[in-house]
Fold:
Amino acid sequence: MNSHVKPASGEQVTRETTDLSRRSFLIGSAACGLVLGYAGMPDVALAAAPANVEPSVWYAIAPDGLVTVTCGKADMGQHIASTMAQIICEELGAAWKDMRVQLASNDPKFNDPVLGAQITGGSWSTMMNFDAMSRAGAAGRIALTDAAASAMGVPAGELVVRESAVTHPKSKKSMSFAEIVKSGKATKTFTPDELKAITLKTPDQYTMIGVSVPQLDIPSKVNGTAKYGIDTMLPGMVYGKVVTPPVRFGATVKSVDDSAAKKVPGFIKAVTLDDKTNTTSGWVVAVANTYTNARKAADALKITYDNGPYANVSSETLQTEAKRLQAETDSGQFFVKDGDPAAALANAAKVVEAEYTTSINIHAPLEPMNATAEFKGDILHVYTGNQFATRSGAIAAGAAGIDPKYVVMHQAWLGGGFGRRLDADMTVPAVQAAKAVGKPVKVIYSRENDMTMDFSRPLTYQKVKAGLDGDGKLIALSHDVVSAWPTARWGIPDFLSPSADKKGPLDAFTVNGADFFYSVPNHHVRAIKNELAHNATPSGQLRSVAPGWTFWAVESMIDELAHAAGQDPAQFRIALLDGKGANDGGAQRLRNTLLAAMGLAGYGTRQLPKGEGMGVACVSSQERKTASWTACVAHVAVAPSGEVKVKKLTVATDVGTQVHPDNIHAQVEGAALWGLSLALYEKATLKDGGIEQTNFDSYKPLRMSQMPEVAVSVIANGEPATGVGEPAVTVIAPALGNAIFNACGARVRGLPMTAEAVKAAMKA
Structure:
């Protein structure tokens, strides 16, 4: 997605800001053009020591030669800060031992060069920032080279930059980065046009890109110096524990009896949230001097609620409503509208029709949701790990009733994100409690708070109808996708997409993946908003987003069609990936990836024992325009009881340019296992308006004992870098479903594919 998201109005201050009135306004040149920000100290203090060289907003070189990269992305274990540093290091010519990383504040100067906002998701980070970080590094190398040439009295074109030093081979003169910085001669700046004109290295010249260097964030995470949001400690800080209503959304607080809470030592106040951002509803925060006492006080509160309009809604209610909406021919908007599927289906030799469903799924990151809020004069400081600083700052401002320019977001390392921390609900109770008690307040969710109030992956219902001609060729496919619209909930118009039928914007993040790279002359995809689900279960972006359910339907249907045509499912796909029209290039890369996975897995080369089967799937996740070409061959054994044992997952992915091979393997392996967990085990249910599963005893993700062998093949072909954090999630479920069918003849069309569901399908 290439739309630009405008930051909240007004300039936002950096994390060093403590008194807005004492800041001097700076204007400087940076890798992404002109940047605005506030200086952290008076000019006289800056002059007291040798100045850093800052060729870009993204990094600074200190007089000791250390290069500190500021990462504008949320680092939640995927090592994106280290990746950004590695890209800069390649073009800068620094020694890896001299590289350091830090996390950005919400100052707009750190906005994404492409998206125009500070957001981490969609497997976009490396893909969308590779060029900007490369040019930032190259600009620094040029500035240092020019300064060294001047100092040494030699032509700049004869200098070599390597390992944090600039050397003149002919004269054997050399200057370290530290010496150049201390000289004060590295003052060259670049306009945006000059940055674009820089000639970058070609892949054959890389010495850092493609090398598995030590990740820069690991030492601090091992020795405990890395600070997560939950580690925040401020002078005079107190604690808040939220009390949430029995329904997910729509409740209001009628009364709060705190008489028992007042008997808890250290109890300060019970704060009923008045959230104008509509992020929360019906929440109360118990504030006390310790978290333990806050929990005790929260348990002691007696709260009465009006449970609101969704008190009787259940998963079954949402599914019934989805089917009703799908049956209405004029509901929704078209995402894809090519040809005339209805006419083609009327003349098809064979028609296959199926319904596919997915359940509500929960993020449950290891670090519980948390935020600490502190007011210092007119400035609100919020300490938390978040994936969307631009939106999080605006929500915190809305909760406080102030202008977003007075909010400073202090970014922390994230103990898991997976899309959960794209939402900023945790800031609301912290901000309103801090405002109510006049002290810094740290709010920490319990696991129960997090699970029952998660912005979950929505329950989805999809209906697919497809037709084959007399030769077994796919001639038409109609696909309806019904779900809540997570991105529309954000209220950011630039994140919505125009519909193909001109009926207004739609949430493409609910249908991405349905616009596949198979050549089908008649293809319609309809995106239908389930308003009831949208309101009763406010949904968010869970790792892989729509491709996690759209490819479940698409790749299952493609398999069903192959069997209906009497063809091998892999060869059926290969024939469809002919690269015609708009599918040129992308289809070929996907085809090659499928062939790589088949070869590594030994697909079709041996007879499998009874009850075992292999299944294939191939996907272009995340979005069609930002694809990472990924294929999977799943090998399963299915018992008569319906229990599925996953023997092996073989995943091949085309990433274009690989920055850090080991990290790519780790990300693909993790994504594959996440996809496995969603496919076979994870399910949340709604009853009486509330999520029933409250902890890991009832919401059961993949366990260590259920881990299969995972084989990964990475295709690095020198094309632009793609993303790796999410694509493999989307390919696992359909590959498993197809393998289960080949093993025992059971076609399961709903996730998760439990033993009970498989056994029932055996009898069908």
Notes: The radius of gyration is 27 Å. The chain has three domains: 20-223, 229-309+369-444, 315-360+456-763. The mean pLDDT is 93. Residues 304 and 374 are 29 Å apart (CA to CA).
